[in-house]
Amino acid sequence: MHLRQRSDIRASEITPEAVYRQRRNVIKMLGLGAAGLVAGCGSENAPSAAAEAPAAEPKALSVTRKGEYTLTDPPTSYKDATHYNNFYEFGTDKGDPARNSGRFRPTPWSVEIAGHAEVTGKYTLEDLLRPHALEERIYRHRCVEGWSMVIPWNGISLADLLKRFKPTAQAKYVAFTTVNRPSEMPGLRDAVLDWPYREGLRIDEAMHPLAFLATGLYGRELPNQNGAPLRLIVPWKYGFKGIKSIVKIEFVEVMPRTTWNIAAPREYGFYSNVNPDVDHPRWSQRTERRIAGDGLNLFGNRIGTRPFNGYADQVAGLYAGMDLRKYF
Ligand code: MTE
Cys staple from 143: which of 35, 89, 239, 248, with CB 3.0 to 4.6 Å? Predict the structure, then answer.
């Protein structure tokens, strides 16, 4: 399937001149094409959906286990982590998810567990989370576009959750699906991606102790724009693997189709491991713009990107013997 084009409104027609120029610069910096074309994961486009009321302040969480996965890297500010987002269901501009997700209702929520497992069914989020203590994990978060953040997530180990359902030997992969609610997600009106958003992991990746399901960040419930109420975090992979607002988890035998791979198969592979040695076809992945402290560091210094986003010691073994240029 080829990439579909969004409605043809020129950014300059609806955006103040300075903002428009800055956006064009970012597009240029990211090596993307003309404004208005959804050229890749999270290209910087004009707001695509009518502005809606922003959501209320998220509630505090009680996090009982802290500090097992921490980093010394300075964290990204809460403001940047929650106002510079990719969540195309709310629009393709970085500010759209915060601006347009106020009508989204993450409660009540249920998740369907399906496929090759001894236990399957539909569970309320509360039932799903009840046996687990919420942890804090400070992870690097590297977007395929070339920016990165350091975010204290709150949530549970993906493996701990999956094991409860006793996957069978036929469960070779795990497929995830995002909710599809056009009345609450104005971006779904634009056919920029093949909705609903879908992602997947090989079962051993999903069972790796670093793979995480987040319900919060910075000790508060996930704001809608970050994927409320439940989203995936795979810190050694590009950010688009981190599917948001999950409603279905399915154990499958065959490698599942994934949204960005469907949109642009030559650009976004199934594995999507952070790899400075394998360029995106349209830009280098050698360096990243770290958004830490205060401000987006739009034209600041870039830092070197590390293999597997700095988690090689823990995860490189999952890919032993694989040609990572072929399995990108
Ligand atoms: N999940 C859904 N459902 N829809 C999306 O558009 N964008 C992905 C990923 N998960 C996306 C998604 C991309 S490209 C990135 S980089 C991360 O979410 C961004 O997560 P953040 O906004 O919390 O930083």
Answer: 239
